[in-house]
Amino acid sequence: QVQLVESGGGLVQPGGSLRLSCAASGSFFSRYAMGWYRQAPGKQRELVAAIIRGGNTNYADSVKGRFTISRDNAKNTVYLQMNSLKPEDTAVYYCNAAYLGNYWGQGTQVTVSS
User: Fold this and answer.
1) Cα–Cα distance for residue pair 82/74, rounded to 1 Å
2) Positive/negative CA dihedral, 45, 5, 82, 59
3) Whole-Å CA distances, 28 to 7, 21, 43, 62, 102
4) Is residue 23 within 8 Å of residue 32, measured between CB atoms?
5) How far lies 51's CA from each of 33, 63, 114, in Å?
6) pLDDT tier at 26 (50, 70, 90 boundaries)?
7) What is the distance between the alpha carbons of residues 96 and 36, in angstroms, rounded to a whole number?
8) Is 42 left (phi over 0), alpha (psi -120 to 50) or beta?
9) In whole angstroms, what is the distance from residue 35 CA to residue 93 CA?
10) Which of 40, 44, 61, 80 is most deeply buried (CB count within 10 A of its CB)?
11) Nearest to residue 23, comparing CAs of 4, 9, 37?
12) Phi-psi region of 65 (alpha: psi -120 to 50; beta: other; left: phi over 0)
């Protein structure tokens, strides 16, 4: 069982930045494939960014060049640096871990508004 705790969400103006963090439990974090997903009201949950154990990353087209996913295996933590935020980035952001199962955090709200 893997437990995930997200933090770092909040209210930001368009063009601003936020950094989300996701702390994971377990002794094999470096083996986890980690991802950030988001779900806006009335929409399906979508993949935002992912990073696999080797460090390769993948991004949704809508966030390429603005968001960066990274991981610190010594801290069992994955990050999502979000720059140049837009109102359409408003959503609940969820951390996901895939390793011998699929695990989700509780979500953190990101609101981009002036």
Assistant:
1) 22
2) negative
3) 21, 18, 33, 31, 14
4) no
5) 6, 15, 31
6) confident
7) 6
8) left
9) 10
10) 80
11) 4
12) left
Counted residue by residue, the chain has a size of 114
Q: pLDDT digits over 50-108, tens only?
A: 999 888 999 999 999 999 999 999 999 999 999 999 999 999 999 999 988 999 999 99
Assign 17 a pLDDT band (cuts: 50, 70, 90): very high
Q: Which residue in the block uniquely carries the two structure tokens 């909040």?
A: 10
Residue 28 has pLDDT above 90, yes or no: no
**Token couple for 32:** 């986890």
Q: How many CB atoms lie within 10 A of CB 16?
A: 14
What six digits make up the tokens of 97?
Answer: 């871990």
